[in-house]
Recover the amino acids of this structure.
């Protein structure tokens, strides 16, 4: 009976004008239309090593799966398969369900001759879309807070565990840019508005309000400024109202727009560096950093740091001295040496050889070890004379006398004769940003 009915359907089918199209009719038992289509397309993809887009339903009981490269090109790529997936490929598979006299049949039409791209060209695989199953895992990992580099590694492990070996195939082996794109698309569904500025304002004045000390929206006349402190961070600062603060900023690695994100870190009772506030600003200046610190103080009236460790940044230095005039400011010793090393390897510094660079760094170390200002004056004079003699020029000592010796109290030991957690560097804050990025 079923076969007679199928033959009747076959006689009514239109004659295909395209010789590449093949037609088949199958019986579907029960209410399993979706399951039948999914299984059919999955088997077809495995057999032909091609991929089709999700079904589009143009009319009742008719479903059309186009090749994933079937879209028409609109940009400068002109449909080149190595530059875009929009190759106008004509391959497809379609399903037309027919229900009569208690039977359900499906007319399957497929055209499997791919056009506009070459399935055998490995270079084209660099433009492949992410495997749907892997995409689901990537979205889960993003919601779990994993970093981009962690997700790239986990996706590689996922692909290898399933036997995929072509590292050029972006369907299974993702790049950081692929993950960023997924993250960007995911944000559309998680943020309150597609406009980032509107989303930020809704969040900081709505569900995140209790975590915001100060918010200044971005306009043509003023920069974006946000001072963030969660209730837990506020409680931490109340336990340590006069801490040594490690202050550092990061830029492009964390914010999509390259805005400055400052972290203010203190050492808790277990010896770990923990952030107690964040400062976000679209434009940096001493006045804006000062504004942020004042707003933080207004929410924490007992807060007054005994010292602040910074990376030789005049904006931070001037703002701290304005808001906390009695607070001792220290320069990160690593950044001091880094700045000196960069200068002596530059053209202005004479591009010194490694041996001569070592002499300069050793001289800086000798001056740092001084425990009194009087000792520093004596040692620095002797060291500068020795440098002039060994280097045959006063270029380096002139640089040191202008940029570093007048500010020795910020980096030499005689300026650190107080409790400062035995810290000579800003590593507490640097380590926090390292964990945040990677």
């Amino acid at each position: 009976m079923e076969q007679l009915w199928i033959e009747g359907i076959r006689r009514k089918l239109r004659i295909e004008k395209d010789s590449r199209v093949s037609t088949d009719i199958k019986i579907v038992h029960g209410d399993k239309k979706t399951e039948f289509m999914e299984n059919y397309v999955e088997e077809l993809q495995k057999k032909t090593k091609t991929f089709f887009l999700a079904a589009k339903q143009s009319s009742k009981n008719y479903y059309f799966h186009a090749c994933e490269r079937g879209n028409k090109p609109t940009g400068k790529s002109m449909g080149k398969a190595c530059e875009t997936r929009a190759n106008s490929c004509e391959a497809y598979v379609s399903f037309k369900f027919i229900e009569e006299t208690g039977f359900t049949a499906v007319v399957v039409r497929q055209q499997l001759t791919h056009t506009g791209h070459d399935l055998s060209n490995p270079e084209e695989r660099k433009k492949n879309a992410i495997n749907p199953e892997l995409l689901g895992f990537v979205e889960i990992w993003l919601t779990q807070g994993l970093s981009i580099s962690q997700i790239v590694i986990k996706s590689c492990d996922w692909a290898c565990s399933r036997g995929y070996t072509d590292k050029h195939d972006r369907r299974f082996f993702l790049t950081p840019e692929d993950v960023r794109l997924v993250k960007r698309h995911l944000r559309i569904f998680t943020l309150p508005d597609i406009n980032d500025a509107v989303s930020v304002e809704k969040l900081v004045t709505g569900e995140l309000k209790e975590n915001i000390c100060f918010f200044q929206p971005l306009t043509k006349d003023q920069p974006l400024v946000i001072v963030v402190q969660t209730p837990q961070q506020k409680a931490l600062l109340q336990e340590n109202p006069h801490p040594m603060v490690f202050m550092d900023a990061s830029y492009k690695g964390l914010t999509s727009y390259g805005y400055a994100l400052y972290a203010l870190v203190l050492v808790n009772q277990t010896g770990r560096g923990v952030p107690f506030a964040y400062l976000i600003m679209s434009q940096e200046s001493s006045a804006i950093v000062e504004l942020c610190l004042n707003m933080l103080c207004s929410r924490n009236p007992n807060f007054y740091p005994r010292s602040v460790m910074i990376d030789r940044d005049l904006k931070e230095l001037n703002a701290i001295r304005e808001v906390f005039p009695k607070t001792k400011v220290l320069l990160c010793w690593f950044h001091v040496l880094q700045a000196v090393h960069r200068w002596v390897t530059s053209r202005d510094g004479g591009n010194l050889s490694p041996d001569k660079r070592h002499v300069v760094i050793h001289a800086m170390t000798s001056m740092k070890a001084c425990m009194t200002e009087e000792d520093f004056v004596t040692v620095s004079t002797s060291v500068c004379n020795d440098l002039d003699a060994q280097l045959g020029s006063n270029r380096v000592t002139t640089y040191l006398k202008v940029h570093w010796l007048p500010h020795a109290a910020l980096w030499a030991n005689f300026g650190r004769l107080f409790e400062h957690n035995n810290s000579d560097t800003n590593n507490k804050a640097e380590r926090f940003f390292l964990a945040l990025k990677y």
Remarks:
- The chain has four domains: 1-121, 132-190, 207-331, 333-427.
- The CA atoms of residues 203 and 209 lie 7 Å apart.
